[in-house]
Amino acid sequence: MKISDLIKTANHNLFRSKTRSFLTILAVFIGSFTIILSNAINSGVNDFIDKQVATIGGDSFIEVFPAAMYDQVAGMMGGGGNKKVKEYNESTGGFLGANINNEDLKKMRAVDGVENLEIFHMLSTEWMKLENQDKKFDVSVEYFPEGNFNVDLSAGRMTSNETGEGEILINEDWLEPFGFENAKDALGKTVEIAVKQTAKCYISPDNCIASAKATIVGVQAPGILSMDGNLHINQKLDNELYNLSMEGVPESSIQNYIAVGNVDPSKMDEIHKEFRRIGYEFITVDDTVGMIRTFFDAILIVFNIFGGIALLAAAIGIINTLYMSVQERTREIGLEKALGMSKSKIFLEFSIEAILLGFWGSVLGITISMIIGYSVNAIAHSTFLADFPTFELVVFNPLNMAVITVIIMAIAFIAGTAPARKASLKDPIDALRYE
Amino acid sequence: MNKVIEVKNLTKTYGKKATAFTALKNINLSINEGESVAIVGKSGSGKSTLMHLLALLDKPTKGEVLIDGIESTKLKSRDLNKLRNERFGFVFQQFFMNAGDTVLENVLLPLKIAKLPRGKRKKAAMEALKIVDLESKTKNKATDLSGGQKQRVCIARAIVNNPRIIFADEPTGNLDSATGDKITDLLFNLNKKQGVTLIIVTHDEDLAKLCNRIIRISDGTIISDQTVRKDLKKTASIKRETEAARVKKANERK
What is the distance between the alpha carbons of residues A415 and A407, in angstroms, rounded to a whole number? Predict the structure, then answer.
């Protein structure tokens, strides 16, 4: 028999005992559905995390701290942090004494693979208002090197330093308070941002606020990482605000705890080693989102185990179904053998039947999970995910589904080998013996 | 005369040592092309075992079975399957049809196994069904047929591959006498008109008498082997014709 005939025959035989085959396919479906849907949800979450990671500079983004401070922070967060009693080191000092000095900054910038590294200014902004308007709003802003930045914008462009002017990105939450009809409406408008001048405040507490102007060049689309509300500004504005706030503070008392920059991700380990030698630690975006990822991966593993157990049960169902089928078709097998069909073809006929049980179960799993997945996406977007139009809760990856289907078919094949072998070894004379 | 089957010192033993049972003892036999042979014997005489060995469904404990001069015990299972598929046709008492399949599907099964292309399969099956006068039932399910019709379908299946030999195991055993006669007519027509060698296993003396040779078996040995009618000249002339026709047909198919 030709393979195409074998497949047709096997499929035809499946639908001969419809209820039995359907129940077995249903058992496979429970496993495949669980695995496919949980993988799709995991893909959705990972996809979202990836997009967000790209937003804050992708794999190349690092935050650098003096080693002494990193230990303290890690200790506070309950992480590994080195809390052993150590000898005092004048250059790094304690937590509060930790400082990124210019010399170290230069050394770090010179490390192979470091693309840029800037001191991160923790600006304590007071308010922001539209130029020519009086209403002031609480605001916090921050500057990161634009390097590999990849911001999801609903309108306008990313900030740059080419214009030599102060530039700011607002997010969509600001449109209504500022009275803009839509994101485009906000572009090109000028805002004023104020900072407290700490040193001045000691002398004249009532008159220690200064402001700088900036142009709105873009509106950021919603995303989890923009929810902290920090607005992105360009370096020009960052420096301006920083200088205003530090006015009157002696340079020797200025302390910098954090530097941010972009590095070549493939050289991350070497850079980490070098930085440690200089006395600094850094964390990457992966470190930050790694925990979220680990959490979702753990859930995925749990669901895959459930799915796997279901498939194991389904495999036993396949074995059972096929044994019954072999029993029922004993004479048919005998006849086929008498008419010259080989052992291997008989084996193949039943193996294909097993594989088809797996295949249809998997197809059913894919179909139902896609129906449910896309429905959930639609519902989510009209309710709790309404603010995140780019976030798909469930993402179906064709390659994933193909691999899962092939694995399920392989499991079904293995389950079918014992009954198929039994069929292939049937003696045509015994099989055709009169009852 | 062309020997289609030749059997030398055939012995078949079931079981081992103490419980061993010898079903056939030292059988020597040759069957010529175009003969119609009845193998007659009581239940347990060894006649079925002999047919199974002749049809290469079973392997002898000792001895040789030659089909068209080919030593079957030396064949690989692949060639053995091919030999059965191409040269033999089977008709059983219990029909053995795939109940859920159509009549056509049942008839073309041997050709499906032989990997013949779809179109040729169907054509050959239609021709075979024409011979048994069941062209009108091709699309019917096998279960919907009467006993006689079922056996006719089985004959169509047995001749669809233009076999050299048809083995019929109690072909009328399950049928009433009128239907049985029709089946018998069909089989002997094939034998006379197309020169197919017919080997019928039966305990029915009336059926046996229609054959030109009767081999009686008892306790695993041949107790008599008589050729009833010697119209070999006639069969020989038919045979030459049909052999040519068979070769032609086979060539057409390939």
Answer: 12
Q: Which residues pair with A156 in a beta bridge?
A: A218
CB contacts under 8 A, B 34-73 vs A, are: 52, 55, 57-58
* Cβ-defined contact of B112 to A1 (cutoff 8 Å): yes
Domain boundary among A228, A253, A278: A253
Whether residue A340 and residue B86 make contact (CB cut-off 8 A), yes or no, is yes
Cα separation of A95 and A69, whole Å? 5
**Total structural domains within chain A:** 2
Which residues lie below 8 Å from residue B67, measured CB to CB, with a gap of 6+?
Answer: B4, B5, B56, B83, B87
Phi, psi of B40 (to 5 degrees): -115, 145
For B81, the closest chain A residue by CA position comes to A340
Q: How far apart are CA A242 and CA A197, in angstroms?
A: 9
Residue A230 lies in a domain: yes
Domain that holds residue B219: 3-253
- What are the structure tokens assigned to A185, written together? 């409406």
**Residue A48 host element (H or E):** helix A18-55
**Searching chain A, which residue's CA lies closest to the CA of residue B105?**
A9
Instruction: In whole angstroms, give the CA distance from residue B69 to residue B153.
Output: 31
Please indicate, yes or no, if residue A77 is contained in any of the structural domains: no
Considering the domain boundaries, does residue A329 fall inside one?
yes
Q: Could you report the per-residue pLDDT of A238-271, keeping only the tens digit for each?
A: 989 998 988 888 877 777 888 888 888 888 888 8
Domain that holds residue A240: 122-253
- Which two structure tokens, joined as six digits, stand for B82? 């091919």
CA B103, CA B112: separation in Å to the nearest integer?
Answer: 14
Place of tokens 């003096």: A66
For residue A1, the chain B residues in CB contact (below 8 A) are 112-113, 115
3 state DSSP class of B69: coil
With respect to residue A131, please indicate whether it lies within any of the assigned structural domains.
yes
| Confidence grade of residue A163 (pLDDT, cut at 50, 70, 90) | confident
With contact defined as beta carbons under 8 Å apart, do B220 and B23 qualify?
yes
Query: Do A271 and A111 form a contact (C-beta atoms < 8 A)?
Result: yes
ipTM score for this prediction: 0.83
| Residue-wise pLDDT tens digits, A14-37 | 888 889 999 999 999 999 999 999
Q: Look up tokens 């006395």; give the residue.
A: A279
Q: Do B85 and A2 touch (CB under 8 A)?
A: no
As for how many domains chain B has, the answer is 1
**CB of B85 within 8 Å of any CB in chain A?**
yes
**Quick check: A282 and A64 in contact, CB under 8 A?**
yes
Task: Produce one character per residue of A22-40: b if its CB has 16 or more CB atoms within 10 Å, e if not.
Answer: eebbebbbbbbbbbbbbbb
